[in-house]
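ok here's the first one, seq then C-alpha cells
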Amino acid sequence: MILLIVSRDVQSFFDFTTFFLKEHLPSKLRLIKSYRGRWVDVCTDCSHLDFLMIGFVMMELNLNDLNDVDQLMLNARLRDEIEPYLDESVTMIDTARMPTSMENEFLASMIAWERAPILPLSQWFTPELKLLDCARISDEALSQELHQVIGRLFEKNIILSDTEHLSDRQLYQLIGRSILPSMEKQISIPGRYLRWQCYDEVADEDIWLTYYASDQERNDWEAANYETAPARRSLPFSRKMPQPHN
C-alpha cells in the first residue's frame, strides 16, 4: 500500500515526516542528504516546492495487543485530539486503507509531535546538562567525561552517529558547541530516537568523501564534479557507541 502525504507548510511537515519515516521505515528508505545535522530520508530536495509529496510503502509494524473494539475506541479519541492541529496545510491520502492500529500509531506520533516543547537539547535534562571546559581537563579525564555524556544523551534517546573521524576532544567540543544548544522537539515516545549525524554533507563534504561515502557515491560525485574525490582513509578513532535494541 502507498501512503501519500501532502503539505503546503514544507518546513513543519518536513520535520514531522522525517521524524515519522525515520522511526517507522529505517531500512526501506535511502539516505540522500543531511538536514540540520540529522538524517533525512526523502526522495528529493523539496525545499523549493509549494507542495511536498512523499510516497512510501507501508510495512508490518510491531503493534500493541489491543483488540479491534479497543482500537476503534482509541482511534475515535485520537481523531478528536488531533483535530485542533489539522488544517488545510496537511492532507493525508489513503489513511482509510491503513489498518486501524497503524493509523492509531501514526496519529499518536503526530499528536506527540504537535504537543512536544521545543527546547535546547541541554534543557532536556534536569538539571540542565552543561559540559566542562575541555581546555582545563586532561585527555584521560575528558575521555571519561565524554563517555558519561554520550550515555546521558542516549538515556534521552539521542544517538550520535558518524563520530569516528573526530577525536574525543573534538567530539566533546562538537557536543558542547553544536548539539546541546540545538533547539529540538522533545518527543516523549518510548523507542523513538533523535539521531545526530556528526558531520554535514555539504559543509564537510571532504569528510564525507574521505570516510563515509560508498564507492558508488564517490563515483557519482566524481562524475558530477569532473574531479577526483579525496583519497579514502580509514576512520582514525574507533569508538563504540550505544545503540537501541532491535
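and now the second one, same deal
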Amino acid sequence: MREALAGRPQVTFLEGDAGIGKTRLAREIEAEAQALGMQTAFGRFVEGGVVPFLAFASAFVRQCERAGLLTPGSALGPLAAHLRRLGGLATDEPANPEDAGRGLGLAVGRAALALAQRRPLLFVVDDLHWAEPAAVDLFADLARAIADGAEREPVAICVIALMRPLTDDGPLQRVLERLRRERVVSRLVLGGMDELEVNELVVEREGSACAPDLLGALQEATHGNPLFVLEILGQLEATGALRRDDGRLLSRINPEALPLPKEVTRAIADRVALLPDALRQTLTVAALAGDEFTVEGLAIVTGLSEEDALDWADAAVAARFLTETGAAYRFAHPVIRHVFQEQASAGRRR
C-alpha cells in the first residue's frame, strides 16, 4: 500500500485457507489506508452468487458514482454506460457476462486509473475464488490496465484480491499464471500462527495464557488457524471444559481430543446448538438474508420489534457470532454464517 502511495501500483493476491485471517487483515489495511487519506472500496464475491460481477457492482461502481465518473460528459465518455449497467444504474439493459468482452473490461480499467488520479485508491476484492469466469477475466483486465498505466506515469492504486488456495487448473489459476509476468503483480500466502501467536490470541480472548499442553494441542489441531482456535475455545468454554489454575488456562478434557480443523463446522454447530431457540432462529433468518444487516433490516425479516432485534443482535455479538461495524452487524466469519444457513429448513429458505 505504501508503494502504491509512492506512485508504484500494486496488485496483490492474498491467499490463505478459510478462517486464516485474510478478511480481517484486509479490513485492517483498509482502516490504515483511510487514515492515510486513501479512498477505499471493498467488494466481495459469494458462492453461487446470481450477480456475476458482484464485487465490482457492489463497491467499485459506487465509488465511481461518488466521483462523478458515471455522468454524461465524464472522463470515461461512452464507457461510463458499461459501468452504469454494471451497477444497475441504467434502465436500458442489465449487465451480463458477455459485456466483459465488449468494453466492460476497458471501462473498469480506465475508471480505476481515473479514480486514482483524483485520490489514491485501495480496492479490495474478497473471495475471488468464488468469481465466475467472466468476473475473473474482468479482474484480469483491471490488473493489466493498472500495469499498462504504470508504464506511462505514476499511479497511486493498490488492489488486493483475497482467495483460498486453488485446487484445480481453472480460470483463476490460468489468469494468475498470465498475470505473474506483470511487474505490479505479487502473490502472498498467509500461513497459520505459531504457538507464541496462538497464545497471544488466547490471552486477548480469555485474559489468561494457555498451559503448555493445551497450547501445543491447540496449535497442532488448528495449524494456527485463528478461526479454528477461537471456535475450539468457544466450544470448550460453552461446555465448561475450560478452567484456570494459577493464572493459566487448562482444559478438563484430554488435549488430544480437541476437534480437528476439518471438524470446525461441527465445532461451530455445537456452539449454535447451545444458544436459546429464539436467538438461534433469529440468526438463521439473518444468515439467509445476507452477510451484513442493520437492526431495522433484521426486524423486517424476522418480524421482531426493533428493540428486540437490537437485543438479539447484541447478544449475538457477546457470543462472538456477530461483529458490529458502525450501524450494521455482520457475521464474524463466512463459515459461521454458513452454519446458520445449514440450520434452515427448505421452507424457511424459500
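notes on #2: The chain has a mean pLDDT of 88. The first strand starts at residue 10 and ends at 15.
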